[in-house]
Specification:
single chain, 47 residues, mainly alpha, 1 helix, 68% helix
């Protein structure tokens, strides 16, 4: 019963660094998609 009180995740193993890297990757992916969307609109308007 005592095991149920233990947290399921430990913040001591560099979790903040992993979360920061994940956030940077997600922001980079969203930025890449936005750049592709904007470049597609410019190509369609030129034709």
């Amino acid at each position: 019963m005592a095991n149920l009180l233990l947290p399921l995740y430990s913040w001591g193993n560099g979790a903040f660094i992993m979360i920061a890297i994940f956030a940077v990757v997600i922001i980079g992916l969203v930025g890449a998609v936005m750049l592709m969307m904007n470049s597609d609109k410019k190509k369609k308007n030129d034709q």
